[in-house]
Write a structure and sequence with these properties.
Blueprint: E1 2-4, H1 10-23, E2 27-32, H2 43-49, H3 54-60, H4 64-67, H5 72-88, E3 93-98, H6 105-117, E4 122-129, H7 139-147, E5 152-153, H8 159-170, H9 176-183, H10 189-202, E6 205-208, E7 211-214, H11 222-231, H12 235-247, H13 253-260, H14 264-276, E8 280-282, E9 287-289, H15 292-300, H16 304-320, H17 325-335, H18 341-354, H19 359-371, H20 378-390, H21 394-405, H22 411-427, H23 431-444, H24 448-464, H25 468-485, H26 488-504, H27 508-522, H28 535-545, H29 549-565, H30 572-585, H31 589-601, H32 611-625, H33 629-644, H34 652-666, H35 669-685, H36 689-705, H37 709-720, H38 727-740, H39 744-757, H40 760-776, H41 782-798, H42 810-815, H43 833-843, H44 848-855, H45 859-873, H46 878-886
Parallel strand pairs: 1-4, 1-5, 2-3, 3-4
Antiparallel strand pairs: 6-7, 8-9
Helix pairs in contact: 3-5, 5-6, 6-7, 8-10, 10-11, 11-15, 12-13, 12-14, 12-15, 13-14, 16-17, 17-18, 18-19, 19-20, 20-21, 20-22, 21-22, 22-23, 23-24, 24-25, 24-26, 25-26, 26-27, 26-28, 27-28, 28-29, 29-30, 30-31, 30-32, 31-32, 32-33, 32-34, 33-34, 33-45, 34-35, 34-36, 35-36, 36-37, 36-38, 37-38, ...
Length: about 900
């Protein structure tokens, strides 16, 4: 990041890098931030990629499954990163971003991500001007503080360099007076160049011996020389330049001609003359100012009232020429005064147009419309609800939305409003409220097609709320409606839900049927609007559970590739987490580590549903396999905090297994048994029976060792009630019988059933069960010794030392692992550096959204840090946290 004052040479240095990169065969993408009236999320990147249409693609695909991801700008950032990664796969890419002092927060966040996390084959060079930050607008300061060594400040030229510029211009070194004049420019190359050009044009220098020096007593000012150059233009050319300054950054010859009241050819001639005078810069595809200082100088030659009038006229001219609504709205915003109904109507119309894709722009449009006199407009207020919800300001959205619902509303308006309130509830993790709101949306739907679509979305909301029975009923009805009417999108959405719900119920036949139907509907991984519902994820999970491993892997890989190609790569961490789940069952800890960490890495820009909990739990289990208790503890603490945010749904079974193993290491068998029984009962209460199956072996063991015969009997009844007698269910029954009635015959039956089921990790666990029973209950037997040898061989082949259980002496070994001092578990010293910084900002009164913007990270990351601080400081509110930080 090149930083310095205006004209210091940032762009020149960036251009030097660009030329070298181009010569080396690197793909160079150039974008520029601009002082836009309405900040557009990630505009410099879109400018570089020539992809302004990306906003529409993101906005159009937003559904309940994406609402929990927060601001659409995060989705767009992920899309940009995927685009860059794709390009870099073919040829190295250099992204050059100019004038980041005008950039929005999402742009700076993405710059921070690219510079600090790194992308293979992608480099970034950006420029930013030093400027005084206004209160509440410290975005660039925050970026500079966060980047550290990635910032290269550019200072003024030294005397030798200034002398060289003068000598290059005049062919001789500067004399005493000229040197003194150039010294007043403070080493700024742009101002020096302006002085030298002005002096040459005015004939104000002459050769004096071996030097060139000033003539007469006139001494121009470096800071006024740029203004003087603009004012020195002939009146007709200056008028065109003034109009161009008003239209900038979108200078069009046709619009300029109408505003300047002259012919197009005259405009083109004026552009050429201004270019020769060094005021304008004409590229192949656009006209702009040589430097922003020249545009500011041109605007300064116009009175404020004249500028406002030109902006108003520019809005009408551009509208007539078919310019985008947002460009027109910008001019209305700068030229209109209160009471201008034409401007208000345009602002509201554009806000409605862009709210789905860029809620921040829509919110600013509604702000300006209100300032111009439209506070009571119903359409404006409804759009404002959508904008607030899209910006993550869910509480404000709900407050305004509830107020609007008390007014008489058209059915369609009420339906849209309630759907936005449902989306806002999803963003805040209140999926139960979202489901309630969607039920009312269905009542207001105008036709059966809308009802079916709405019911599919309701099924998603109910599934996220863990209302399994209600979700199943809604999804079944929506799937049938979609199938009967040929509405593929509705059917795919509904059957994607049914895949997961049937798995939860252990209705594997139904899950497989849903998965196979999804493969038919989606062409086995092709792209379509339905792809946002991630049908491949559910289908792969279903086929995996019925042991169709080849089919599951094929769909997983094809679907992962499809979502990336469709610009939905925010979902890839979920595919990675499922892949890690596959590796865990295969007892492949190296693969688990690789893919689970990749899943976590994928959540830095966009946080998927449940991915962090799922991945952290798997990583904790692997850490326990290798005896790294401290690492497991860190992963589980992070998982606990993710669950506390209210958004995590997947991986609860792995989480319980890891938590119980850690509890046994740190406390003892009774604590482990309590974790597992609580999780078993919870999963049963919310209807996720499938996740219970993962706990059978571990809970049977702790129940058997704890002599909890009632629990073993209850578990046997629960497993016996499972309708489908798959090989894995039979293996569960045999393992339960082993602990309920230990004997050589029950041991052999349990091992045989585990072999038949073909799940390596479960086989290892069963073998260890037999060995442990032989040791703890009946003494060493031949069967026990053989089981122990085979288990050790399988563990060694997999790179593990145990399946996470505590063996004799292991707890003492684990506590002696490292001699390095450990961070305390509670108190201020327990906070990490990131948690401390967040806690201090909370104490300063900032909200989580404001802290995320300040630190250039996601809201979810801040939620996690705040909850970690609550846990470590043993507080329950922001007030208590503030007191703890301040020591009061």
């Amino acid at each position: 990041l090149l930083v310095g004052e205006a004209g210091i040479g940032k762009s020149a240095l960036a251009q030097w890098v660009t030329d070298r990169a181009t010569a080396a065969g690197v793909t160079v993408l150039i974008g520029r931030a601009r002082p836009l009236t309405f900040e557009r999320a990630l505009f410099p990147f879109l400018d570089a990629l020539d992809a302004d249409h990306a906003h529409d693609a993101v906005g159009a695909g937003r559904r309940f499954i994406e609402a929990g991801l927060g601001d659409p700008a995060h989705l767009l950032a992920q899309r940009i990163v995927d685009d860059l990664d794709d390009r870099a796969g073919h040829q190295p890419v250099l992204v050059v971003l100019e004038d980041l002092h005008w950039a929005d927060r999402p742009t700076l966040t993405l710059v921070h991500h690219l510079l600090t996390r790194g992308r293979v084959g992608v480099a970034v060079v950006a420029t930013a001007r030093h400027r005084r930050s206004s209160p509440g607008d410290e975005a660039l300061d925050d970026l500079l503080a966060a980047l550290g060594d990635h910032v290269l400040p550019l200072g003024p030229l030294d005397e030798a360099a200034v002398d060289a510029l003068a000598a290059r211009r005049f062919g001789r070194p500067a004399g005493t007076r000229l040197t003194a004049l150039l010294g007043t420019a403070g080493g700024n190359p742009l101002l020096i160049d302006a002085l030298l050009s002005g002096l040459a044009a005015d004939g104000a220098v002459r050769v004096d011996g071996e030097n060139v020096d000033l003539i007469g007593t006139f001494t121009p000012s470096p800071t006024s020389e740029i203004e003087r150059r603009v004012m020195a233009l002939p009146p007709r050319i200056r008028r065109v330049v003034q109009v161009a300054a008003v239209l900038s950054p979108y200078v069009r010859a046709d619009a300029t001609a109408q505003l300047a009241d002259c012919r197009t050819m005259e405009v083109l001639a004026a552009f050429e003359a201004a270019n020769e005078a060094g005021v304008l810069s004409i590229d192949v595809d656009r006209v702009g100012f040589r430097h922003e200082l020249y545009r500011e100088a041109a605007l300064a030659t116009l009175p404020e009232t004249a500028r406002e009038a030109l902006h108003l006229e520019a809005a009408r001219v551009l509208s007539g020429l078919g310019a985008s609504g947002l460009h027109v709205a910008e001019h209305f915003a700068q030229g209109a005064r209160p009471g201008n109904r034409e401007a208000v109507a345009q602002l509201i119309a554009v806000a409605v147009e862009v709210v789905a894709a860029d809620p921040a722009v829509a919110l600013r449009l509604t702000d300006v419309a209100i300032d111009l006199g439209a506070p009571g407009d119903l359409g404006l207020r409804c759009t404002r609800v959508r904008a607030l919800a899209g910006c993550g300001r869910a509480a404000e959205a709900e407050l305004l939305g509830r107020a609007l619902l008390r007014e008489p509303l058209d059915r369609a308006v009420e339906a849209q409003l309630r759907r936005e309130l449902a989306l806002a509830a999803v963003v805040e993790g209140r999926t139960g409220d979202a489901a309630s709101a969607m039920r009312r949306v269905l009542e207001l739907a105008p036709d059966e097609h809308s009802v079916a679509r709405g019911r599919a979305e309701l099924a998603f909301a109910q599934m996220l709320a863990l209302q399994a029975d209600d979700a199943h009923a809604s999804a079944t009805e929506a799937a049938e409606a979609g199938r009967s009417t040929g509405d593929v999108i509705t059917e795919v959405a509904a059957r994607s839900v049914l895949c997961w719900l049937d798995l939860w119920r252990i209705d594997f036949d139904a899950a497989r049927t849903a998965a196979e139907r999804l493969v038919v509907l989606t062409g086995g991984g092709a792209n379509g609007e339905w792809l946002v519902y991630q049908p491949g994820l559910g289908a792969a999970a279903a086929l995996f559970e019925v042991d169709d491993l080849d089919g599951a892997s094929r769909i997983l890989n094809d679907s992962r590739r499809a979502v990336i190609e469709a610009g939905l790569a925010w979902a890839t961490p979920a595919y990675d987490a499922l892949d890690a789940n596959f590796a865990m069952r295969a007892a492949d800890p190296a693969r688990v580590l690789e893919v689970a960490f990749r899943a976590l890495e994928g959540t830095h820009l966009v946080d998927g549903f449940g991915v962090e909990v799922w991945s952290r739990a798997l990583l904790a289990r692997v850490a326990l396999f290798s005896g790294d208790v401290d690492d497991a503890d860190e992963h589980l603490s992070a998982a606990d905090l993710a669950i506390a945010s209210g958004r995590a749904q997947f991986g609860l079974d792995h989480l319980a297994l890891a938590q119980s193993s850690l509890a046994e290491h740190q406390v003892g068998l009774a604590a482990a048994h309590r974790v597992l029984t609580d999780s078993w009962d919870l999963l049963g209460a919310i209807g996720i029976i499938h996740a219970r199956e993962m706990l059978v072996g571990a809970l049977a063991r702790t129940a058997g060792l704890s002599a909890d015969h009632d629990r073993l009997a209850a578990m046997q009844r629960d497993v016996a009630q499972i309708g489908q007698r798959s090989a894995s269910v039979v293996a569960d029954e045999r393992r339960l019988q082993l602990w309920a009635s230990p004997s050589p015959s029950s041991a052999r039956r349990a091992i045989a059933a585990a072999r038949t089921a073909g799940r390596k990790l479960e086989l290892i666990g069963t073998l260890l069960d037999v060995a442990e029973i032989s040791t703890r209950v009946h003494g060493i037997t031949a069967d026990g010794a053989a089981a122990q040898r085979e288990a050790r061989e399988l563990l060694a082949a997999s790179g593990m030392v145990s399946d996470g259980r505590v063996t004799t002496g292991q707890r003492a070994t684990a506590t002696r692992r490292d001699a390095k001092p450990k961070r305390p578990r509670f108190g201020l010293d327990a906070l990490t550096e990131s948690e401390t910084r967040v806690a201090v900002l909370v104490a300063d009164g900032l909200t989580n959204v404001e802290i995320a913007a300040r630190l250039l990270v996601s809201r979810r990351t801040i939620d996690t840090h705040v909850l970690a601080a609550y846990r470590k400081l043993e507080v329950r509110s922001r007030v208590e946290l503030t007191r703890a930080v301040l020591g009061v």
